[in-house]
Every structure is written in structure tokens, then in C-alpha cells.
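Q: Make up one entry.
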Amino acid sequence: MRSVSAPTDPPVPPPPAQAPARPTEPSLPRRIAHLDMDAFYASVELLRYPQLKGLPAVIGGGRRSEDDALARAYAGRESEIPVEAFPLLRDYVGRGVITTATYPARQFGVGSAMGLMKASRLCPQAILLPVDFASYRRFSRQFKDIILSIAPVMEDRGVDEVYIDFTHVPGGQREGGRVLARLIQKSIFDATGLTCSLGVAPNKLIAKMASEFNKPNGISIVHEGDLESAIWPLACRKINGIGPKADAKLQSYGIHTIGDLAARPRDWLVRTFGKAYGAWLHEAAWGRDDRAVVTESEPVSMSRETTFDRDLHAVRDRAELGRIFTDLCERVAEDLRRKGYVGKTIGIKLRYDDFRIATRDQTIATFTQDAATIRRAAGECLKRVPLDRRLRLLGVRVGNLLTEEEAREAEAAARVPETGRLFDD
């Protein structure tokens, strides 16, 4: 309906002449990078032991007597240790798990979180090195400082990977982000001798996939218009969040590629995989992800979880589950120490072979970042969940976090007596 002014309204004077408005500057397309250090722990060890380059090697377990003897004999001369003097995986006896492996070892099917005894059957000739978290933390801080000096919007995702917002960084739009990616890659290598791989894309989801395209020491650029050609032909497992069990279920419906997944209606995915997971599968297949690169956020909790290559039984696969469980607790503890946090609430997460999820947690008396303490508390949580079905995922979480300084202050305050008065009557 058109409004009409009453006859008594005074005439409205025309607006004063103004200069024509300047066109609004078009917003820049989002360019988000995922940077992943190449076989990080193994690469750090190869800087110390260059004679092992090109050989299968695994890093896992604690220091052994033979490791200490070798270190004493060649103190300051690690690069001179004869290859034949290193311990071999075939001689290992114990319950440790692999933290990482060199690329030559991975060709034998050896991978992280695998039991060392199982790996010894796949690649007995691999050289076995102990984990040295102090060195890994030092190199981690170094490469992240280099990134921040070039691109200040960085999200720390662990000891060996980060997300970086290239959108407004000089060079971040050139060649889709390739120019800036090359600069970061070269700067890290020149300063540390370590290589990394980057994927640059419109969002985190696709950037993480792209960082795997050209490993090691590669750069991959994906634009919005590349979804059909670069992403849809990939196997569904390439989406971070689709594990072997979900992939098997997808394949049972004839869904083998991300393109196949994108072709399925959202409603069908929700009915088949549940409301939350089905909706997420639809969004992921269409490359949609609005998550921001978060630079400074206080974590509510820290967790580690892993999806198994095959479903594991709590009784028949007890030893393997125990090794993985211990490794997850150690990794969470390492994350807490590296970031300077302690926690009081310890929890576990299980996903069964029918996709049901169970969680349990408990709050302990004191704040901790100790792996053994986390392992004990998480073990108590496990006793409270049914273990009658096979498991496809296991996770460990530490919540109720404080910084180490905040925890010390809280504990000090708790020790101060509160009488409610200064003097007794």
C-alpha cells in the first residue's frame, strides 16, 4: 500500500546535493591454510641422526638401556653412530605403541598408535628410536614462531599442525595463496631443516584435505570452483571425521567417493546416520565449513581420540586396547604440559560398532597433567561403561582446566585457614 501525506503536511525540501558514493570495496575470498609438518617426530630425529635418512624407522616407547648406552658412547657425535648399532624393531619386547614412523617404514603398513610388537611383524628391520618430547616441543615452538612472524592469524592444533588465515595477509591471495605458502615453507626449512606441507582452500575442512595431496614438502591450492574436480573424486575417508566403520557403511550403500556422498539427499543421510552426523556428512560433502581460525581461546578441555582400523573387542583385544588407551593418556598429558594447563575432570568416550556413543567422567581431588594419574582415573571411568559390544573409537578427555599458575594460586588459597575472625574471644 502506498502512503499519502495529509494535505496539511509542509512540503519536504529536496536533499542537498552530495558527491556520488564510492563503491564498496569487494570482500576478499577466504583463504585458509592447513600446515602439517612432514612426519614431524621422525623428521626431528633425522636431524639428529642424518645417517638414517631413507631407512625405515619408528619412534615409540620410552628410553631403554641400549638407548642410554648409545647416547653415552656417542655424546655430541650422534651423526657418527653406525647404522648397525641402532636397536631394531624386531628385538623389541613390551607393550609400547608407535608415536610416528618415517615414510619408508609407512610403506610396510606401520603407523602411529600401532603396537610395537605388531609393527615388528610388519617391518622387523625398522630402526627403533625412543620418544624425545622435549626436542619435539622445542622445534614446535620454533616453527610456530616463524609462522606468526609472517601470518599472525594462526590456530594451534597440536605439536605439528596449525591453521592459518591467509585472507588479509600480504601475498595471501596471490596465486590462491601459493606465494605466501612458499614463503612460509621456505622460512621454516631455512631455520629448522624441517619440511612441511600446506593446503590452501576456502575453509578448514578442505584445507586439511588439501595438505595431504602432495606430501611431503608439497603445496596444494583449492578454490571454490574446484570442489567437483578436486574433492568429489576422492574417497570418503579423506574427509576428516569419516572413519573406517562409517566408510564401510557408506560403501554398503554404494557411496565410495565424496561426490557419491554429495549426491545423496540430506534427509536420507540424517535417517541413515543420525541427525547430527548425517547433517554433517551432507555439509562436508558439499565443502561447507564456516569455522573461523581461532587464535586465542581458553580451552574448556583437551582430548585425544582414535578410530580403529578394525573394531576391537574389550576382552579378546584387551592388550591392544590397553596400549592404545595408555598412548592416548600420554598424548593428552603431553598436550597439557605443552600448553601449560592442568585439569581435574577426567573422561572417556567410546563409540561402539553400531555407532552408539558412551561417555563417562570423574573429578579427582587435585589438578593434574600427569599421564599415569590420567590413566588411572580414565580406567575407573571405563569400569562404568558396558563393554559387551565391539569398539570402533576410543577417546580420553581432561576438563575443568586451569593454567598451571591459576592452579597453584587456587591450591595456595585452599590451604589458608578461614576462621572468620582475627582473634579468639
In short: The longest helix spans residues 318-339. DSSP finds 15 helices and 13 strands in the chain. The radius of gyration is 27 Å.
